[in-house]
């Protein structure tokens, strides 16, 4: 996966993303935002905000900044914010998740939904999410992770792996590979629908 492939894939998806993936991936998105909405007064970074499907679900006493690599997806998100008058959305920015243009510790919470199998450098991206999160802050990931053991699902994931560039995501990406070398504390991992194919991962940055 590289930035050119990612932009090309999501240029194709932008026009129908909400109708197809909005429904298919709704459970994980709702689970993540419900977890975040337990508290107010937060500054939240949503990495890979896409078309902004989650933006209207956040508590209005939280401030949300969304970033995405795809101009086409961001255009849909910007139209959504204007149409729905989402005043709690602080900004929507075109940005590479692996090179975040924010100061260290800028956010109370960082959330990345269906992003980590897409970015060119998942470990580097995780390091960036940690960097911009405040010490003691939370990092919430929703993602598909490959089956940990051999079986039918793992066979299908491996079979799809060569199609990653066209799909726009890596079917054979593992949780272990994401967390390898990371100093983040893993607080919980829960499966979410559909079919238990996705996980809600909660990590915490070390510190106060």
TrEMBL record:
InterPro entries the UniProt entry points to: Methyltransf_11 (IPR013216), Methyltransf_Superfamily (IPR050508), SAM-dependent_MTases_sf (IPR029063)
Keywords: Methyltransferase, Transferase
CDD domains membership: AdoMet_MTases
Location of the Methyltransferase type domain: 45-141
Coiled coil regions in record: none
Protein name: Methyltransferase domain-containing protein
One function term, GO molecular function aspect: S-adenosylmethionine-dependent methyltransferase activity
Taxonomy, superkingdom: Bacteria
UniProt entry tagged with the keyword Methyltransferase: yes
GO biological process: methylation
């Amino acid at each position: 996966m590289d930035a050119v492939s990612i932009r090309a894939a999501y240029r194709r998806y932008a026009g129908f993303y909400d109708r197809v993936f909005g429904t298919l991936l709704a459970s994980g998105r709702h689970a993540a935002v419900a977890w975040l909405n337990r508290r107010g007064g937060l500054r939240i970074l949503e990495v890979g905000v896409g078309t902004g499907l989650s933006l209207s679900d956040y508590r209005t006493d939280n401030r949300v900044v969304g970033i995405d690599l795809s101009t086409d997806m961001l255009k849909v998100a910007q139209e959504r914010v204007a149409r729905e008058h989402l005043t709690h959305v602080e900004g929507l920015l075109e940005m590479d998740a692996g090179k975040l243009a924010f100061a260290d510790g800028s956010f109370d919470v960082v959330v990345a939904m269906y992003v980590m199998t897409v970015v060119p450098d998942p470990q580097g991206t995780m390091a960036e999410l940690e960097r911009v999160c405040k010490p003691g802050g939370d990092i919430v990931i929703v993602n598909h992770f490959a089956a940990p053991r051999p079986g039918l699902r793992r066979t299908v994931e491996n079979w799809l792996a060569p199609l990653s560039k066209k799909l726009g995501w890596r079917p054979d990406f593992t949780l272990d590979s994401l967390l390898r070398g990371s100093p983040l504390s893993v607080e919980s991992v829960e499966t979410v629908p559909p079919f238990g194919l996705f996980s809600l991962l909660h990590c915490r940055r070390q510190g106060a």
